[in-house]
Design brief:
The chain has one domain. The longest helix has 30 residues. The chain is an all-alpha fold and about 210 residues long. About 85% of the residues lie in helices and about 0% in strands. The protein starts with a helix and ends with a helix. α2 runs antiparallel to α3, α3 packs antiparallel against α6 and α4 runs antiparallel to α5.
Length: about 210
């Protein structure tokens, strides 16, 4: 491996563990109702780590000609960026970055669906994984688009959306950790298990936040 790629891979791995740890801290903090400043700090570190993951995944994917991982990286960063945007934008008024991230992910969802269909046609289970993620990416980005067109979210709805996207980003982090570090057949289970297990928790947290006065 080229020395530059080795450095990028090292940064990618460190950022991955950082994202995994901070996402767990942020989630536990919210459940335990600990001081909000710790949740906010963990969330910021999580976003920085996810940015580093994306920034290193792009050149690594290109160098290894791995379109599958590139599309997963785009989707993962979209989730983290969206969660961060909903946390920062208290007024709910859509900004240029919001439109850019949503439209980019809509196009990315189409690319994921097309490439996933191709992989499935070639007999690869990665095709199923990519098609599932394409559906999720399309659903989340289309929902974001409808929010932007309606003028944005404020109040508890904004917080609920922030939690949804951040927890979805956490799913991506946990999935990557499992796929890289655990040997299991079929690998499809590792790719999809975190989504199946954590999605109900996302609905629970949404309901909890939306009930708050």
């Amino acid at each position: 491996m080229h020395p530059i790629l080795h450095v990028l891979l090292t940064i990618h791995i460190v950022a991955g563990f950082t994202a995994l740890g901070t996402s767990l801290v942020a989630a536990i903090n919210k459940l335990a109702n600990w001081p909000h400043r710790w949740h906010a700090l963990a969330g910021r570190l999580f976003f920085v780590a996810m940015t580093a993951i994306f920034a290193t995944a792009v050149p690594l994917s290109i160098a290894t000609r791995n379109l599958f991982l590139l599309l997963i990286a785009v989707f993962s960063f979209y989730l983290a960026l969206s969660g961060w945007s909903y946390a920062r934008n208290r007024t709910g008024e859509p900004a240029a970055l919001d439109w850019t991230r949503v439209l980019t992910m809509l196009a990315g969802a189409v690319a994921m669906a097309l490439y996933g269909s191709y992989l499935l046609y070639r007999g690869s289970n990665d095709g199923i994984t990519l098609l599932v993620f394409a559906i999720l990416a399309g659903f989340l980005s289309f929902k974001d688009l409808s929010i932007l067109r309606a003028g944005g979210f404020t109040g508890n709805a904004r917080i609920a959306r922030h939690l949804t996207m951040m927890l979805a980003g956490s799913i991506a982090t946990i999935t990557a950790f499992l796929v890289v570090n655990i040997q299991f057949s079929p690998m499809l289970v590792l790719w999809l298990a975190p989504t199946a297990l954590i999605t109900p928790f996302i609905f629970f947290m949404n309901a909890r936040v939306l009930k708050q006065p």
